[in-house]
Amino acid sequence: MKALEITKPGAARLVDRPEPTPAPGELLLRIHTVGYCGTDLSTYRGRNPLVAYPRIPGHEVAAVVEGLGEGVSDWTVGEQLLVFPYTECGVCSSCLAGRPNCCKNNQTLGVQRDGVLAEFATIPAGKAMRAAGLGPRELALVEPLTVGAHAVARGQVTAGETVAVFGCGAIGLGAIAAASYLGARVVAIDVDDAKLDLAAACGAAERLHSIRDDLGARLNELTEGHGPAVVIEAVGLPATFRAAVDLVAFAGRVVYIGYAKEPVAYETKWFVMKELDIRGSRNALARDFEQVIAMLAAGRVPTERIVTQDVSLADAPTALANWDRAPGDVTKIHVQLRK
Ligand SMILES: [Zn+2]
Ligand SMILES: [Zn+2]
């Protein structure tokens, strides 16, 4: 079978690999659609310290059951599914606290182990999820949207609250769609007007341009001078990390999904004076997947606009290289493997 391999930083190519056979308890999958994740781009750029090369990337997947390993009885050949891409250790403090999404020893498909950007793949049957009524496009979008949905859960967002989201890439859009789905009023913030339009299509009631608009003044206007109850940061820059704390309401919540690549200097008095809840958000839980599946089934996400490019497996290495050169042009690339 053909697979996409990131051989070393900056080098992606198609390779021949033996078609896998499912071990007991596993499913053999015929891969239909795989979304490129920001993580896959980091791997290509050699910026993900968790990756050893060569690596087959890919964990945002729509697939069809092609075969069953011994002992698998709850799946049938031909069923469509998506894959829960995380494997937790079960014994670290996160796992023991019922929060396996932030497992200290987590392994994600395509990062610490080979992913599914290949014609076939095997996975433990317990990692397969059904999503009745969703097509391959939606199935492959579930996982990236769950990351934002988990941040909304971490922010304990409730209906009627104002939630500001920094960053309208694939992850930020998931947060916007999930918060709006819960009935919050979402203010989307970005430097790119096209991304702000997409944010509005995902449910953002207001959009602010981080350079043209005076964010503090506009957010105060929208909230009777209080500031947003929740700020979610999905950019990963020191300036937006700081702005989240500066702009959030007193007694508000700040949730960070982005990874700032450099240290961030804070006016820490705001942590205390505002008595902030500042929380990190990593990956997602099974219940976030269920929420996103419901949100997609309800037609709340403009999936055809979020996917900015469809490519074949043969063109997938070039698409990755182009994404590396012009990251701003891409919200989501889908690799279509079905012939
Ligand atoms: Zn992903
Ligand atoms: Zn663990």
Structure description:
This is L-galactonate oxidoreductase. One of its GO terms (molecular function) is oxidoreductase activity. Keywords: Oxidoreductase. It comes from Botrimarina mediterranea. It is a single chain. Strands 3, 4, 5, 8, 9, 16 and 17 form a 7-stranded mixed beta sheet that branches. Strands 12-11-10-13-14-15 form a 6-stranded parallel beta sheet, with helices on both faces. The chain has 339 residues and is of the alpha/beta class. The protein has 2 domains: 2-130 and 302-336, Quinone Oxidoreductase, Chain A, domain 1, CATH 3.90.180; 146-280, Rossmann fold, CATH 3.40.50.720. The chain has helices spanning 38-45, 93-96, 136-154, 170-181, 193-201, 215-222, 238-247, 269-273, 286-297, 303-306, 316-325, and strands at 2-8, 11-16, 26-35, 60-68, 80-83, 86-87, 107-108, 120-124, 128-129, 162-166, 185-190, 206-209, 230-233, 253-256, 277-280, 307-312, 332-336. The chain is built from 11 helices and 17 strands. Residues 88-90, 92, 94-95, 103-105 line the site of one zinc ion.
List the helices and strands and how they pair.
Layout: E1 2-8, E2 11-16, E3 26-35, H1 38-45, E4 60-68, E5 80-83, E6 86-87, H2 93-96, E7 107-108, E8 120-124, E9 128-129, H3 136-154, E10 162-166, H4 170-181, E11 185-190, H5 193-201, E12 206-209, H6 215-222, E13 230-233, H7 238-247, E14 253-256, H8 269-273, E15 277-280, H9 286-297, H10 303-306, E16 307-312, H11 316-325, E17 332-336
Parallel strand pairs: 10-11, 10-13, 11-12, 13-14, 14-15, 16-17
Antiparallel strand pairs: 1-2, 3-4, 3-8, 3-17, 4-5, 5-9, 6-7
Helix pairs in contact: 3-4, 3-9
The structure holds zinc ion (ZN) (2 copies).
Domain Alcohol dehydrogenase-like N-terminal: 24-130
Organism: Botrimarina mediterranea
Protein name: L-galactonate oxidoreductase
